[in-house]
Amino acid sequence: MSFSRNSKVEILSTTTIDDDTTALAFLSGLFHSCGQIEKKNGTLFFKIVSDVPQLFDFLNGILKNFFGEEISPEVAENYNINKNTYYEISFEIERFKNMLLDAGVVDLEDGQLHLKFDLDQNLLLEDASRRAFLRGVYIGASTSSIKLSEGAQSCGSGYHLEFSSQSHQFLTELSHVLAEYNIIGKIFERKNSYVLYIKDAQTIQDLLALLGANNAVLELSNEMVTRELRNKVNRQVNCINANINKTVEASLRQTNAINTIEHTIGLESLPEDLQEVAVLRLANPEESLDELLKLSTIQLTRSGLAHRFRKLIKIAENLEN
């Protein structure tokens, strides 16, 4: 199961609906984020689609406790997208009209029901109601690219969570509700819909904590630590490899210069201090300057040894010219 779906299941398992206002706020968030009206055999239905089958029992609990109703699910056969099964839950509008009106997701105009895209602010006056609303929106419209690493294998993905909707107005008002909790997202248009997205891992953590998904917060925190450690190790390995490459390149250049001198004027023509350095390098072609200093019989500093090698390279360049 994906990180996104796990967090939704956790939210459903930890959420308690204590009163009808909180219940309507949750339904408002859920229905606004994934609801649509369709006609079947002359009957109007309000339909929601979800990849979380546990949502059906949760909704039935709300309806039985606060509205004295039960719903019958309709699961579309072979309704799969990206290997995920999606479930349709339908409400006969005439039977559930009062609930839909109270949740602020439909409106009556000239006797006709229409979807509403603006939020009923009366449902969002209390903190508990706002949180319930956001839980409904998260379960109904959120998707995430977050993948948890398995063992030493990196997931290779970033931190991205988004809410998509056909309504720019809904996402704008949703962003205002999130901003009350210092959770800031950005809205952009994607094809024929709109997306409110969050790319900052810490902000995603704050959102999950706000919704009560504490296990998801812990998993994301562990993932952040794992990725940071892996990145730190990679940086260190890259640095070590870069230093090794530099050492090899410098040693090769020094060895080539010494060979040029030896094959032209001979090493014996060099000053004694340069002769010893040249012989030392030829005897230890792969060692770094620090290792050569340990092997040297004369007292030299690292800069002093490097200076002598620069002299040898300069002599070889002059001989070649």
Backbone shape = rod-shaped
Radius of gyration, taken over Cα atoms and rounded to an integer in Å: 34 Å
For the termini, the CA-CA separation is: 69 Å
Architecture per CATH nomenclature, i.e. the level-2 architecture of the largest domain: Roll
Our estimate of the beta-strand percent is 15-25%
**Sheet with most strands:** 4 strands, antiparallel
N-to-C series of helices and strands: HHEEHEEEEHEEHEEHEEHHHHH
In CATH terms, the superfamily of the largest domain is Homing endonucleases
Unreliable stretches: none
Look up the CATH topology of the largest domain. Answer: Endonuclease I-creI
Number of DSSP helices? 11
Number of domains: 2
Q: What is the level 1 CATH name of the largest domain? A: Alpha Beta
If you average the pLDDT, what whole number results?
A: 84
Helix-strand makeup class: alpha+beta
Percent helix: 55-70%
Q: How many strand units?
A: 12
Question: Short description, anyone?
Answer:
The chain has helices at 3-14, 20-34, 54-66, 93-102, 127-141, 168-179, 201-211, 214-264, 272-283, 289-295, 302-320; strands at 35-40, 43-50, 73-74, 80-81, 84-85, 87-92, 106-109, 112-115, 142-144, 161-165, 186-190, 193-198.
